[in-house]
Amino acid sequence: MKILAIESSCDETAAALVEDGRTVLSSVIYSQIEEHRLYGGVVPEIASRRHTEQIAQVTRRALEQGGISLSQTDAIAVTFAPGLIGALLVGVNFAKGLALATGKPLIPVHHIRGHIAACYLAHPDLKPPFLCLVVSGGHSHIVEVLDYTYFRVIGRTWDDAAGEAFDKAARVMGLSYPGGVQLDKLAATSRPGTYSLPTPKVEGHPYDFSFSGLKTAVVNLVHNANQKGEPLDKAALAADFAETVAQVLSSRLMAAAKELGYRTLVCSGGVSANSQLRAKLKEKAAKAGTSLYLPPLSLCGDNAAMIGSQAYYEYLAGNLAGMELNARASLDVSR
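and the corresponding structure tokens:
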């Protein structure tokens, strides 16, 4: 089954062709990073306008690279939630138009489910059930993937997501957008152990996250140093910040896996590209004797291939939509 998938939840306009949920026939991404870098972050109105301008040609290129015509596809899939509402609406309405014009089934896909499915593309042997840490700019979840379309969230962030904390810490340190990537590069030039940072936790909720206090601690360190004219080792601070986030994320995942009895672990989402997090997860998984699956860097960020992968399993489960489909800015992954 060949599915044409559309992704436009934030600042990447993407289209892909995926066969049977596991094989990528083509994947095209138009990134807006350079434009949003001027503002230090994503400007929703600009993102929506660029999606409108790019989505048709991105989709055309995906079909050309896949070597098939639109009529030869079997279904149309699209990210409908969660994300920037204006950006999502561009993709949803475009996909609805394609489905209406061709008579193809329309498959709505949850963005977080897509991030989880990214690992299906890279690891043919990966099948539910497993425990997944999903970490991105807007989400930090520990999710039980009980089946391809059956999920249970057992941990989530109460405030800033890990990726958001990375970006805000990077911004106050004077690093360019996208901050998480720049902070990771800077951290690699130093070692942790210079600055004492708080380890955030939520009392009574052992698998939940809270990164606002850690972010604030970095902001205060930088501001105090600037006000007093004291030197600040930004590379060391970046290393300590990244180490703390990686330790919190990995330790909660491992604790949940131990309590729930999972021997198969997955990490996905944009922050899964962070080098310290990947290293920490590999180290702890090896020590615990558990299997760990990570997506390649090319599938960590937003892309349409992951949407096409999850769409296949949504289709098999009968999760289709009609022309009444609307975008949702927020929606629980277990919906």
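(Above: one complete record from the training split.) The first strand starts at residue 2 and ends at 7.
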